[in-house]
Amino acid sequence: MKAAAFNYEKVSNIAQALSLLKVHGDQAKLIAGGQSLLPALNMRLSAPQILIDLQGISELKKIEEEGQVIRIGAMVTHTQIENSALVLEKLPLLSQAVTHIAHRAIRNLGTWGGSIVYGDPAAEWPACAIALDGVMLIAGPNGQRRVAAKDFFQDLYTTDLGPDEIFLGTEFTMTALKSFHYFEELSRRHGDYAVTGLASQVEFDQGSISAIRLVYFSVAATPVLATKAQNLLQGKKPQDLQNKDLLAQVCALARAEVPTVADITNSATMKTHLVGVLLERALKAISLSI
Amino acid sequence: MTNKTTIQMTLNGQLIQAEVEPRQHLVDFLREDQSLTGSHLGCEQGACGACTVKMNGQIVRGCLVLAVQADQATIETIEGISTSGKYQDLQKAFLQFNALQCGFCTSGMLLAATELIETNPQATRSQVREWISGNYCRCTGYQAIVDAICHVLEERLAHA
């Protein structure tokens, strides 16, 4: 079917976008890449009165490095991330995750910001942003604010972003420590939404795990950090992860602490099982990493 | 009462101007307003790839772009690519390898293949398969399409 009628305004800066949001309130929808919005419009799942197009805001389209901080602008496309040498060097978790996003034609238009603010439970970027300890940058009528990625995703399709606010991008602070990343999605067919996915970032200090973030996605309404499993892995060395007892203990912890919700084709029990499967694979990779 | 707006674009090499409603997506605009029916609609959700066209040099889902978003853009459809002759070898390969039956997916497959040839001329068979996994075919079972694209990649490398 065809979308219901709406008005359309293309803005050239953030102030204009904020002003239009103020005028139109919940009758307005921001459009970034449109790769999630347009299907909703075409199927009439969404029927706003006005679309505010952010494509003209060039300052949001940058991947920038400033000292120890890398900033990914909200309007950066998935393909830009796929092609970025800087991301490959400094945030390789994103380079590995990006080819799991839909297909190339969609990646050419879809954006970092669109994925982040849509908050789909199966999305890759929210989980990766948490795994990399990112900070979300937000502009609103009262100025700018910052929210840690792990606090940003609140419920199904619900983030901390207010209705009168615009997401500007995410900042990642680089560590001097040696890092390792692991990303995997399990799905019935290649290219399907994940049944269960894991985005993980590890930092080593003198050969021991000084920080580890295990972020599961497609398991519940939002990405989930397996904090108890993380705590148990703190201080361990890669070779310790070859110990079968430790592995069993960590996986049992993760399966117990990560809430899972059934989806249309997979039971909660299946997802819980896959939480353990993914963690085993991740830990094996980490054990071989040094 | 409609809220039509005027847009301009370079379409298959020609500068055109048209009036569109904001809600009209690009493929409907191309098919119905410009009579370029080579691009097809299969799902209108971005999943099937039959609507794939080129916008500003990149493949996009024509059903997931509004015509108003294509204002000031450069658009290429299968008609333009065919006329340009730039991918005659790819089109011939599709015929040679029997990579189409009903032809509904074909324009989308060809458009997708052009971007692979441009960005990864040394793509392996596995990479070709992954690349076109965003385009559905109900007739051929895909092998012939993959064969055709691999053949073109090989030939182009051999003559590079």
Layout: helices, strands, pairs:
The complex is a heterodimer of chains A (290) and B (160).
Chain A: E1 7-10, H1 14-24, E2 28-31, H2 37-42, E3 50-53, E4 63-66, E5 69-73, H3 78-83, H4 85-90, H5 92-98, H6 104-107, H7 112-118, H8 124-131, E6 135-140, E7 143-148, H9 149-152, E8 153-155, E9 158-159, E10 166-173, E11 178-186, E12 196-205, E13 208-217, E14 224-225, H10 227-233, H11 244-257, H12 268-287
Parallel strand pairs in A: 1-3, 2-3
Antiparallel strand pairs in A: 4-5, 5-10, 6-7, 6-10, 8-9, 11-12, 12-13, 13-14
Chain B: E1 5-11, E2 14-20, H1 26-33, E3 52-55, E4 58-61, E5 73-76, H2 78-84, H3 88-96, H4 106-119, H5 125-131, H6 143-158
Helix pairs in contact in B: 3-6
3D architecture notes:
The complex is a heterodimer of chains A (about 290) and B (about 160). Chain A is α+β, with helices and mostly antiparallel strands. Chain A folds into 3 domains: about 5-55, Uridine Diphospho-n-acetylenolpyruvylglucosamine Reductase, domain 2 (2-Layer Sandwich); about 60-175, 2-Layer Sandwich (Uridine Diphospho-n-acetylenolpyruvylglucosamine Reductase, domain 3); about 180-285, 2-Layer Sandwich (Enolase-like, domain 1), CATH 3.30.390.50. Chain A has 12 helices and 14 strands. Chain A has helices spanning about 15-25, 35-40, 80-85, 85-90, 90-100, 105, 110-120, 125-130, 150, 225-235, 245-255, 270-285, and strands spanning about 5-10, 30, 50-55, 65, 70-75, 135-140, 145-150, 155, 160, 165-175, 180-185, 195-205, 210-215, 225. In chain A, helix 2 links the parallel strand 2 (about 30) and strand 3. In chain A, helix 11 runs antiparallel to helix 12. Chain A is globular, with a radius of gyration of 20 Å. Chain B has a 5-stranded mixed beta sheet with strand order 2-1-5-3-4, with helices on both faces. With about 160 residues, chain B is of the alpha+beta class. In chain B, a hairpin with a 2-residue loop joins strand 1 and strand 2. Chain B has 6 helices and 5 strands; from the N terminus they run ββαβββααααα. The interface between A and B is medium-sized, with 31 and 32 residues.
